Amino acid sequence: MLVGLLGATAAEQGALATARDQVEENRRRTMSPAHPVPRQLPADVSGFTGRAGPLAELDAMLPAPGERRPAAPICVLAGTAGVGKTALAVHWAHRVAERFPDGQLYVDLCGYDTERPISPADALDGLLRGLGVRGQDIPYGQAERTARYRTLLADRRVLVVLDNAHGAEQVRPLLPGGPSCFAVVTSRDDLAGLVAREGARRIDLRTLTPEESVALLRALIGPHLDEAPADAAALAGCCARLPLALRIAAELATTHPDMTPAALLADLRDEQGRLDLLDAGGDPRTAVRSVFSWSYRHLTDGGARAFGLLGLHPGREFDAYALAALAGTDLARARALMEELARGHLVERAGPGRFRMHDLLRAYATERATERATERATERATERAAERAADGPVALTRLLDHYLSTAAAAMDVLFPHERGRPAVPPPRTPAPPVDEPGRALRWLDLERPTLVAAALHAERHGLPRHSADLSRTLWRHFEVGCHHQEAFAVHTCAVRAAEATGEGRAATLANLGTVHWWLGDHRTARECFQRSLAAAREDGDLHAEARALGRLGVVGERLGALPEALAHLRDALAISRRAGDPHGEGVQLVNLGALCRRLGRHDEAEEHQRAAAAVFAGLGDSRLEGYALGNLGALYSMLGRHDEALTALERALANCRTAGDPGGEAAALAAMGLVHLRLERHPEALDHLHRALAISRDTGDRSLETETLNTLGETLCAMDEPDAALVRHRSARALTEETGDRYEHARALEGIARALDGAGAASEAREHWRAALAVYLALGVPEAERVRAHLAE
After folding, report:
1. Which region, left, alpha or beta, applies to residue 663 given φ > 0 means left and ψ of -120 to 50 means alpha?
2. Which residue of 158, 255, 375, 755 is surrounded by the most CB atoms within 10 Å?
3. Longest Cα–Cα distance in the chain
4. What kind and span of H or E run contains 23?
5. Cα–Cα distance between 750 and 726 in angstroms, integer?
6. Residue burial 729-761, b: 16+ Cβ < 10 Å; e: rest
């Protein structure tokens, strides 16, 4: 209470307490045995030449040794597509990497992707993972992610490369906050807003000079190019002196050594002339397309087909398994085709076994795949285009089948007892190994952006079944991993898809409702669950009916409709038993036991939780056994059996940690904090509660955040810190006003009353106790008697 003695007001003390909480949470979040050092830069560009001026400008922006600047330098490399912005940024980054011993971060923002540019929140997810943050510890909100990111970068020397940005708003949340870092941004836009507001320095990249262009061709083709300098200069001119086009042309020259520069030049001019009949001349992009077309016509038939098919891929990255699915071929053949495209610079490497495609090439490949191409010069080319046009829809279906079947196999390994996932046929094309939990989780984490893109693409392009089935397959992975943004995107489009086909409506609506429920939007969640229940009953799907009833029960509990919630949960339990679904039975027993504890029916609560723990132990589901044990521990503590409570909660915590479930981990920590409070072990209580609060905020679990804030307030009040307690309870009350959580709202009002009474504001305290009593009486819970006793005093 020293700040009080020094004259701080109650409000100031509360603000200081909140700041102290935040400092403590940040300390806990950032503490680790050793900071990981990210090395995310793509491979340096081979044969890099020229750009002496921009390289010198970049070098000049580096702080001198020992120099401390007020903010991190920001450099914007701006220029047209294909001009070599990424190549310059990556080359310079490799050259100065030793100046940034704490690591180099890289993210491709896909700013000009027509389907789904990377959102700042998604980019922050990847950046935080690169800095060593576990997936379950990444905050949900974009602002919270930015704050965590900048906290981790504070006082570290890290180079951040933000590639292919669309605009300043996509970049701002990703900029480091401290002066020890350096950010390089590439964009086709001039990003004037960053220059004006953040003080970025822009370097405008033009096409290479004639001398630089010939030097690049010489570096890639060889010194014999000097035998015909005029032809070399003309070849560079036909490529519009754009590095992307020059590299593709050079690859053709090296793979066809029998063709002289003059012959290559004539061939390219023929192609240029053909395209000029169809395109307006004078645009550098026309020259680039001519190089693409020229290179494309020199592929093998298999390579040309593979290139066109990759234009159908909805994701930003792909591997040989994806190409095998698109082409309907074996893995060895797919790898050979991918290598052919990589040698021709038509795809680029994005990591071990991973590839991506420049967006200009992707657009060109899409033309080839959808018969919008202008490839009509020969009968052979016409036949090949027609073959690809017919192949496209079938190939896309094969690709979506590949992702769906592999995701289903991974989920079967990770959650073998889960019911309600769609029946997915076995893979028809080669599938990656996901036969044990580590491999399954790695594949899901690696391909999660692609799986989201696939679900959205399927719904938009006439394949709604795949969209709905991906939602029904992946929902538990999204939930346990706290991938709420991805879940919201997939489930939203899946609901539309299911409603269009009439299949999977109950499951997709329940999935969407679960995201709303998790994030505290209980009223919207209830609407989704009600629609899910109606669809399940219409379809005669007992599993979906039990799930919808169970979800209505838990959300009804939060909204204060306790008798209705009890009826829903009992019906859900009965239907799960009738359907012969022991896993569903265990879930409903957990939910029913938790509600009975709140209603003061302690014997029933213990019976249900013990039965649930036995069910999950028998099934081998240690994660949900942990939930049952956690609820059992909370009940034991309420009954004064604190040693038994801590034993059960330690097991619950271990189970949820092993299963990688941060929600269960945080719930166990919060319950342990309450036990320590009842044992008057206040420092231990604060330690557990602060950890639970940090996880609840990181995962976006607003219900648990509210509960934990209230328990923190009660702990601080017990420690004779009423002003600090008041801050926590008022924060909890504010959350309940958004979420509609009636019980925690009453608990917050009671806590505010207790804190006000401790601070000497008896009259105001009495008003809050009366308000709390009214809610408790409406809910019909035993806490009403406790409050009535306070008022009587």
Report:
1. alpha
2. 755
3. 104
4. helix 10-30
5. 11
6. bbbbbebbeebbbbbbbbbbbbbbbbbbbbbeb
Percent of the chain as helix, strand, coil, to the nearest 5: 70, 5, 25
Q: Is 281 exposed, middle or buried (CB count within 10 Å of its CB: 0-12, 13-18, 19+)?
A: exposed
Integer Rg of the chain from CA? 31
Residue with tokens 């939203």: 492
Pinpoint the alpha helices (H) of 559-581.
Answer: 562-578
- For residues 480 and 441, give the distance between their C-alpha atoms in angstroms, rounded to a whole number: 12
Please give the pLDDT value at position 161: 97
Contact 136, 482 (CB under 8 A): yes
Amino acid sitting at position 497: A
Per the listing, tokens 């709202």 go with 745
Q: Which amino acid is at 589?
A: L
Express each pLDDT in 188-234 by its tens digit: 888 888 988 888 999 998 888 999 888 988 888 888 787 788 888 88
Quote the mean pLDDT of the chain.
Answer: 86
Token pair belonging to 115? 């389907």
Question: Which helix (DSSP H) or strand (DSSP E) does residue 517 occupy?
Answer: helix 505-518
Residue 182, H or E segment: strand 182-187
Whose CA is closest to 695, among 676, 679, 673?
673
CB 316, CB 453: distance < 8 Å: yes
- Dist CA 671 CA 656 (whole Å): 14
C-alpha 435/C-alpha 400 separation (Å) is: 20
CA quadruple 108, 112, 114, 116: dihedral sign = positive
Q: What is the b/e burial string over 9-18, where b = at least 16 CB atoms within 10 angstroms of the residue's CB?
A: ebeebbeebe
Tens digit of pLDDT for each residue in 466-485?
Answer: 999 999 999 999 988 888 88
Q: Tokens for 496?
A: 């539309």
Secondary structure of 110-149 as H, E, C letters: CCCCCCCCCCHHHHHHHHHHHCCCCHHHCCCCHHHHHHHH
Global confidence as pTM: 0.75
Alpha-carbon torsion (11, 15, 18, 20), positive or negative: negative
- Do strands 348-351 and 159-165 pair parallel, antiparallel, or not at all (unpaired)? unpaired
Best CA proximity match to 728, nearest among 133, 6, 10, 21: 21
Report the distance separating Cα 21 and Cα 13, nearest Å. Answer: 12
DSSP 164: E
At residue 571, the pLDDT reads: 97
**Residue 439: what pLDDT?**
94
Strands 74-78 and 159-165 turn out to be unpaired
Question: By C-alpha distance, which of 588, 568, 662 is closest to 628?
Answer: 588
Side-chain half-sphere exposure of 531, counting CA atoms within 13 A: 19
Q: Round to whole Å and give the CA distance between 565 and 549.
A: 9
Distance (Å, whole) CA 471 – CA 423: 13
Give the tokens for residue 377.
């010069």
Q: Are strands 104-108 and 348-351 parallel, antiparallel or unpaired?
A: unpaired
Residues 6 or more apart whose CB falls under 8 angstroms from that of 690 comprise 21, 24, 25, 28, 712
Q: What is the mean pLDDT of residues 369-387?
A: 44
DSSP string for 221-232: H-GGGGGSHHHH
What CA–CA distance (Å, rounded) separates 448 from 560?
A: 36
Token digits of residue 387: 């073959």
Out of 32-46, 209-223, 564-578, the most confident range is 564-578
